[in-house]
Amino acid sequence: MNNTFAKDIKKGLTAKNKFIPDRDYYDDKGSIFFQELMHNPNYYVYNSELEIFESYSTNIINLFNSNNETFNLIEFGAGDGIKTELLIKELINNDVNFKYIPIDFSKKYINDMELSFKKKYPTLKINGINADYFDALAQISTNNTKNVILFIGSSFGGLTDIEADVFLTKLSSKMKKNDVLLIGFDLKKSPDILYKAYHNTCIDWCKYLLSRINNELGGNINLSQFEYYTNYNPENGKFKWYFLSTIEQDVYIKNINLKIHFYKYEPIYIGQSKKFSEEEIIYLSKKYRFNTINNFTDNKQYFIDSIWIK
User: Cα separations (Å) of 219 from 20, 243, 255, 260, 279?
Assistant: First the structure.
């Protein structure tokens, strides 16, 4: 039994407002689900950022390495590394001296990436870390070596307001003068585009969370009695998703000896993806003591990769 998953489920489903942490999507099978989701044509986030890296990788690495110094390239939520590989390849081709430190909650992602990158790039120094964002913050080196931090995709938008504040506060405190942060922001856009990206395309991946409870923790959840529901609030830019219990019912989770009561249409919060305006991005950089040195966007202006310097 996965103790972290068990603790998350016990804490989340006994809370006043039930929730399941989104990190629990990313076991081995859930990570495969997400890889398939990224290549769905309606899920624009992946292709938008891929376009940015394909178009501007040379410009981006020049901002990383303006003084030709050695640095650590640290990536939070590295995933399968396909987009980041474009930057790594450009760095290697330009004989830049760096060490790549991918961080991900999925051990499968880390292991697969290390094997793949070592085979493709024998000279690459790579040291993966299997941890969530907050645990990994403590492992960022504060010695004299420059750090370049990647937090790409829509990972930052998946954090709650409190989590986002804690993360950027701690990250800023760990970064030294002239350290660089490349952070991805999904921009506000038509709700029609968002629903196509996050509603039907994500349903199987989200249902997998409930299946994990049954398969790993001995739950007796009837998936047909939970409705998948999504909602976008254009005022705060938050697109959220939930499961709603369609009947009043009790669920029993054998392996953690937990009985949970659901009222009819009571929700389980299972995640969010916040969308940002350019004004919000500028505000955040200043609030956490960074200067913005460049913004890169795709042709449709769906997504921004913003580069901040401490």
Answer: 15, 16, 8, 10, 45
Q: Does domain 44-187+276-309 have CATH number 3.40.30.10?
A: no
Query: In angstroms, how far is CA 305 from the centroid of its own chain?
Result: 14
Rounded (10°) angle between helices 191-198 and 44-64:
100
- Per-residue pLDDT tens digits for 198-241: 887 778 878 888 999 999 999 999 999 999 999 999 999 999 99
For residue 63 the two structure tokens come to 């901002």
**Angstrom distance (rounded) from CA 22 to CA 2:** 15
So where are the chain's domains?
3-38+191-274, 44-187+276-309
pLDDT tens digits for range 245-269: 999 999 999 999 999 999 999 999 9
- Residue 237 C-alpha from the chain's centroid: 17
The C-alpha atoms of residue 238 and residue 275 are separated, in whole angstroms, by: 6
> Is the pTM for the entire model greater than 0.85?
yes
What is the Cα–Cα distance from 269 to 241, expressed in whole angstroms?
Answer: 6
Tell me how far apart the alpha carbons of residues 7 and 30 are, in angstroms, rounded to a whole number.
Answer: 18
